[in-house]
Specification:
The complex is a heterodimer of chains A (266) and B (1008). Chain A has 266 residues and is an alpha+beta fold. Chain A has 11 helices and 9 strands. Chain A is globular. Among the domains of chain B are: 85 residues, no CATH class; 282 residues, Dimethylsulfoxide Reductase, domain 2; 158 residues, Barwin-like endoglucanases. The chains are: A alpha+beta (266), B alpha/beta (1008). At the A-B interface, helix 4, strand 2, strand 3, strand 6 and helix 7 of A face strand 1, helix 1, strand 2, strand 6 and helix 4 of B. Strand 2 of chain A pairs antiparallel with strand 1 of chain B.
């Protein structure tokens, strides 16, 4: 990409960002997420309520991301994510035309949105946002209708072929609730993933968001994502576009049966 | 739309778009059939996540009783990072792998060595967010590498081949039978008599009476290793030298030997082979050539971390010169990072051009280059020095040697009075001197080292360098100006991209840039590493010495470390009045070891034929470019290797040709002592001990079979002095037995614990329990006596580490390299190519890519217009074939091609293509990658496996089908070239040092 275009892009997303930060809607999700009954929540189970005074977010400082996939691997292992399913992943892109080409990485996970569309479509109340903003699925309640999976504008939910219910990133709630960091953050080689409490103005995430322009993926979704990106190129802000998924082609050519490789293989 | 089509998603099928489509049909199917509930998750909210290892509430740490977290060393690549392993106390299975926060390989800043273990968990937690700063990471491989422990293709019992070599049919046998057969030989396979090791366990009888310089019969045994993962000293010093063979070789010849030898030349030490890495943290301008930190390199993870940190929080700007755009770059790093695409093998011309420009425009640090000795360096309070002012004799018997005084000290011209003096007495030597000098009544025609470099640099014009490298003249100039515009806080990094036929001189030239500014030992410049606490040879024991240890004698099978001119063959030819050149094959006087020459040399019986090969986790068939051609030599026991024993936990591309396989341990099941390879400034030692029980069959003494226990028992069966009673001596004259690996390694740990003025602390009972060391107490007390709690302290931290604060003294690195940088390397400059008799250049010089005898490698001939290269993967490595979860992250590898180039050949993204070299063809899927030099095609290394579970194996009549995903991908080394100017079937290599040439292979590409 030419220098000129790049600076235009840059201005663009700085503008979007400031607009977004202007909203400053970092409080917990609105009441509609709590509209249905859920025994765990009613019993004030800590796993359902979360950490009441906090609002967990993540900042992706892309200046430090090296696309190493340590996060993807740590997540798969820590959460026993089923085969060919991913709670987080880092697609790699090349931007521009030879010789003016740049690498770009886009680490993605559930955005733990302030206005999560997955929650509003759930007919059972199985999926909801905890008071600390972590969007979770109660597997005891979920009956696997899949509305939430289709409602997520970020495609960050999947159908768990083992439990037969909807599944997703929990920000490693089991670790957060034990006073630890999410596995992807702990394992981030470049130090690009920063998680923390946005309600604490001294937290690293608060400081970064004050200091640097940041943006979110698909800001037009209206979901108000709570995963923020520093240094995101506007061209990939709308999520991946590719000429085709070569790996799938190779898997078929290699002779793997769809059951062995495809997400359909349940 | 057209524009966004340019934004290729590289690699894998985990794109949100596909998840969307597939996810949708999943749910549709599910909803329509209302299928039953699946297996209930462990937790309704946390699903199937692992239970946390500890809880940190308001700064109070409570550790879970369900797990033990013990330090170890990762073996997922050659960096060998320090890790902590979370093991389930009930199932004894690995639950997770973290970084070890005490080690600089996993954390930076790393925590103080004296930090209590419990406190370390607090520091890693969310408490006060300290975990964000000291986060201790493992890479993608490291996170998943434990899958290998339980792989169904793992070999746990000794195997003997049934049927022919390479058929991959095996029977299990007892380890006792294996040792008996390997030692005594006999008609082992119904193919006739095979000599056992006993037949040449002999350090007295000459191997070849006509060539006494070949050494004793013992040299008929050759042992191949891999990168040192902590046990190499044990096999080299206790077994190879106990046996008496000169033939041990690690994997460097297929890894980065061109880099190592070029840096050894620059640092003037071909014995220790030191090498340099940038001080990333304080560097202002970094030039990466033929390597890409954050994409690859060693230490992979540490470099990535430092690079990311320095480009954001510090002053680092860098340029990466590679044929492919790598993960060194990131759009978000903006102008901190830039990429200069170069055709494979174009680096030498580029750098020689830079050197020419820097010299021509006097942009070098003249005052620094004039420092002629360590004494002068100290007087001037500088950080390093060079031999730029030393004088090289230009004619006569001493041609190519330095002019020295009777004590061997270099003589230089003092700039203050223009007289000839020993270098130690001169503050500034004349680096431009050229002419006649007289010393002790003799006249010499001499030139300064610097002038020799200048002559070579000026041999081509900048336009010519631009043409040869394919890099515009302006770019060469800009790079030279940038490199010389940041004082001494500039650095270069180079590695595997130099593995081509002129890689040695490429590296030497790249390093030379640093000498021109004086960056060695300088903060922000280059470091030879931070060193280590004394380990094998320490205060209490020298574990590498024992009564009856042999010195390597004679000629190595790879003809390394020795000039042809010292051979009987040379002398015979000279005596009979023949031209001694060409020799039958090339010799490599300043190379350490060439794993790549072993099979060929033995098949050629030049210098001699081997009796037996023991390979230990070596896989040269996968690693060596052109190795396909060696397979017939391995398949027939009569050709190169009459007896082949592989020590390996897997049947890989090489060990499948073995006669016997001895199962080695995997990862955390064994002992070891290892320090970072490079890229660090403070002392560091890592220790590994068996934290998991090995599933391998056991010896009668209860010790599971591994490399260590095997060579102890094999050594005893051969009567070697290095094992058994009294094999270990302490420095106070006591003797101890060596029956088990712990007898050796715990003593090395003890040396580490007590090294220096202040030994490490003693461990508390609580900490012994926290990291699961209780089971070692009996061994610790019996072997380490009064020091046992200190040794346990080292084990509890995974090693011993100096503080980050100990890195510098002002602008000088505390761990400094002492010798003079060789602007001219005398050893190189006085060595000759044995095929031609041509004298090698003693300073960097441009050579076009060539075969060993100087014949140019023609690109473009018969349509071979592109140059193929491989690049290291940030996810896959040769050690990861068995990691199926990792294959979910990187399924396969492709043939990367620039879309403009592809168009020329009618190739589309995703087409199946045939790639052919002069020797071989391979198939693969073409992947459009804008960030590929148009004259090249690239392949990520790590795919296309034919071992470790990728192919069919039969053991005891039972079949194991190879797994498709392990086989998937492109394996570029199959295309490797042969060097027909060398003897027999020889793979192409660097003409001076013999490093395997896997880069810049001329190829043609066709759509199938």
């Amino acid at each position: 990409m030419s220098e000129e275009k790049s600076s235009v892009k840059r201005r663009d997303f700085v503008k979007k960002t400031s607009a977004l930060l202007g909203i400053a809607a970092f409080s917990a999700t609105g009441a509609k997420a709590f509209s249905l009954t859920n025994p765990g929540r009613e019993k004030k189970d800590k796993r359902h309520i979360g950490q009441e005074t906090k609002r967990f977010v993540m900042v992706m400082d892309l200046r430090k991301c090296v696309g190493c996939q340590a996060c993807s691997a740590a997540c798969k292992n820590e959460n026993n994510v089923p085969k060919e399913k991913y709670r987080t992943y880092v697609p790699e892109y090349e931007l521009g035309v030879f010789p003016d080409v740049r690498k770009a990485f886009l680490p993605q996970l559930c955005n733990h949105c302030a206005e999560p569309s997955c929650v509003s479509v759930c007919p059972t109340g199985a999926t909801f946002a905890r008071k600390d903003g972590v969007v979770v699925v109660d597997g005891d309640i979920c009956w696997g209708c899949g509305y939430c999976i289709n409602a997520c504008p970020y495609d960050k939910r999947y159908f768990n072929p083992q439990t037969n219910v909807a599944d997703k990133c929990t920000f490693c709630a089991h670790r957060l609730d034990a006073g630890l960091l999410p596995a992807c953050v702990e394992s981030c080689v470049g130090g690009a993933r920063i998680s923390g409490d946005i309600n604490d103005s001294n937290s690293e995430v608060s400081k970064l968001l004050k200091q640097f322009p940041a943006t979110v993926l698909k800001p037009e979704s209206g979901n108000q994502p709570r995963v923020f990106y520093i240094g995101l190129n506007g061209e990939i802000q709308g999520l991946p576009f590719s000429l085709g998924l070569l790996d799938d082609k190779v898997k078929q050519k290699d002779g793997l049966t769809p059951k062995e490789w495809s997400s359909k293989g349940v | 739309m057209e524009k966004s089509r340019r934004n290729f998603l590289l690699g894998t099928g985990v794109a949100a778009t596909s998840l969307s489509l597939v996810g949708y049909s999943d749910t549709l199917k599910h909803t329509l059939t209302l299928s039953d509930r699946g297996v209930k998750a462990k937790d309704s909210i946390y699903v199937n996540a692992a239970l946390p290892e500890c809880k940190v509430v308001d700064g109070d740490v409570s550790l879970s009783k369900k797990f033990t977290i013990t330090p170890s060393v990762c073996n997922g690549c050659t960096t060998h990072c320090a890790v902590r392993v979370k093991i389930d106390n009930e199932s004894k299975k690995v639950v997770r792998i973290f970084g070890n926060p005490y080690s600089l390989l996993s954390s930076d800043p790393w925590i103080n060595y004296k930090t209590p273990l419990k406190e370390s968990f607090k520091l890693l937690s969310a408490y006060k967010e300290s975990g964000l700063e000291v986060r201790s990471t493992v890479c993608a491989r490291g996170n998943l590498v434990h899958e290998k422990l339980n792989d169904p293709f793992r070999v746990t019992k000794p195997l003997k081949r049934v049927g022919k070599r390479g058929e991959n049919k095996w029977q299990t046998i007892s380890i006792e039978q294996l040792i008996q057969e390997v030692v005594n030989g006999g008609d082992l396979f119904g193919e006739g008599n095979v000599e056992g090791l006993k037949a040449f366990c002999d350090t007295k009888t000459p191997l070849d009476p006509n060539n006494p310089d070949y050494g004793p019969l013992a040299n008929k045994l050759c042992i191949l290793g891999t990168g040192d993962e902590g046990r190499q000293n044990f096999i080299v010093h206790r077994f190879s030298l106990g046996f008496g063979t000169a033939n041990f070789m690690g994997h460097t010849a297929t890894c980065g030997l061109s880099m190592r030898s070029g840096e050894a030349a620059y640092l003037n030490d071909f014995v220790k082979y030191p090498h340099l890495k940038p001080d990333f943290e304080h560097c202002e301008y970094l030039l990466n050539i033929a390597t890409a930190p954050a994409q690859a390199g060693n230490p992979f993870k540490r470099q990535a971390k430092l690079l990311a940190h320095a480009r954001v929080e510090k002053n680092l700007h860098y340029t990466t010169v590679t044929p492919t755009l790598t993960n060194s770059d990131a759009f978000a790093a903006q102008n901190r990072s830039s990429w200069v695409p170069i055709k494979p093998g174009g680096d030498l011309a580029l750098v020689m051009g830079m050197i020419r420009y820097i010299i021509e425009n006097r942009r070098y640090n003249e005052e620094y280059l004039c420092i002629p000795s360590e004494d002068s360096q100290n007087k001037l309070n500088d950080v390093s020095h060079t031999n730029a002012s030393h004088l090289v004799i230009q004619s006569g018997e001493k041609e190519g040697f330095f002019l020295v005084d009777e004590k061997g000290e270099a003589l230089v011209i003092d700039t203050s009075d223009n007289t000839l003096k020993p270098a130690s007495l001169v503050l500034q030597g004349d680096i431009y001197f050229e002419g006649e000098v007289s010393y002790l009544g003799e006249n010499y025609s001499v030139k300064s080292s610097f002038n020799l470099l200048k002559e070579n640099a000026f041999a081509l014009s900048l336009d010519e360098y631009a043409k040869e490298s394919g890099i515009a003249k302006d770019t060469i100039q800009e790079l030279a100006v940038e490199f010389t515009s940041h004082g001494r806080a500039v650095a270069t990094d180079c590695h595997g991209g130099t593995m081509h036929t002129t890689g040695f001189y490429t590296t030497y030239a790249i390093m030379m840039l640093g000498a021109l500014v004086g960056n060695l030992n300088h903060k922000g410049g280059m470091s030879a590493g931070g060193g280590k606490f004394k380990n094998f040879d320490g205060a209490k024991y020298n574990l590498l010495a024992y009564k009856g240890k042999n010195k390597p004698q004679g000629t190595r099978i790879d003809r390394a470390r020795k000039p042809y001119e010292k051979s009987s063959e040379y002398k015979r030819k000279v005596e009979s009045g023949q031209n001694p050149y060409p020799a039958k094959d090339n010799w490599y006087p300043f190379t350490n070891a060439l794993q790549t020459e072993v099979i060929t040399s033995s098949a050629n019986e030049y210098p001699y034929k081997l009796g037996a090969l023991i390979s230990w986790n070596a896989n040269f068939i996968y690693a060596q470019s052109g190795s396909k051609n060696l397979e017939p030599l391995l398949k027939d026991p009569k050709k190169a290797v009459p007896l082949f024993v592989a020590i390996d936990p897997f049947i890989n591309e090489t060990s499948k040709f073995a006669d016997y396989i001895v199962p080695d341990s995997v990862l955390f099941e064994t002992w070891g002592v290892v320090s970072p390879w490079s890229g660090y400034l403070t002392k560091a030692n890592h220790v590994r001990f068996p934290i998991l029980e090995s599933p391998n069959a056991k010896f009668a003494n209860g010790e599971p079979i591994s490399m260590d226990s095997f060579i102890i028992e094999l050594g005893k069966a051969l009567g070697l002095k290095s094992f058994g009673e009294n094999a270990i001596a302490s420095k106070d004259g006591q003797f101890y037995p060596l029956h088990k690996p712990e007898d050796f390694y715990l003593r090395a740990f003890e040396n580490i614990a007590i090294d220096g003025k202040e030994p490490v602390s003693e461990i508390s009972d609580e900490e012994l329990q926290i990291c699961g060391l209780e089971k070692y107490i009996a061994s610790l007390q019996s072997i380490c006596k009064e020091n046992w709690r200190r040794v346990a302290y080292v084990m509890s931290r995974g090693g011993r580490f100096a503080s980050k604060q100990s890195a510098y003294d002002g602008d000088k690195m505390n761990a400094s390299y002492k010798k003079a940088i060789a602007i001219y390397n005398e050893k190189v400059g006085t060595s000759k190519n044995a095929l031609t008799g041509e004298r090698y250049s003693g300073t960097p010089k441009y050579y076009p890519s060539r075969y060993c005898d100087g014949t140019k490698i023609k690109v473009g001939k018969n349509g071979y217009e592109l140059l193929a290269f491989s690049y290291k993967s940030n996810v896959l490595s040769s050690a990861t074939a068995a990691l199926e979860k990792l294959r979910e992250i990187r399924y396969t590898t492709y043939i990367d091609i620039n879309p403009a180039t592809a168009k020329k050949y009618g190739i589309s993204h995703g087409d199946e293509v045939m790639l052919s070299s002069f020797e071989q063809s391979i198939k693969g899927i073409a992947r459009f990658k804008e960030g590929t030099h148009p004259l090249s095609v690239g392949v990520e290394h790590g795919g296309g496996r034919e071992g470790e579970g990728a192919v069919h194996v039969k053991i005891d009549g039972k079949s194991f089908e190879g797994k498709i995903e392990r086989k998937s991908g492109v394996f570029l080394n199959k295309l490797g070239l042969l060097d027909h100017t060398k003897l027999g079937i020889a793979t192409l290599s660097d003409f001076a040092v013999g490093s395997n040439a896997r880069q810049a292979i001329p190829v043609k590409i066709e759509k199938i």
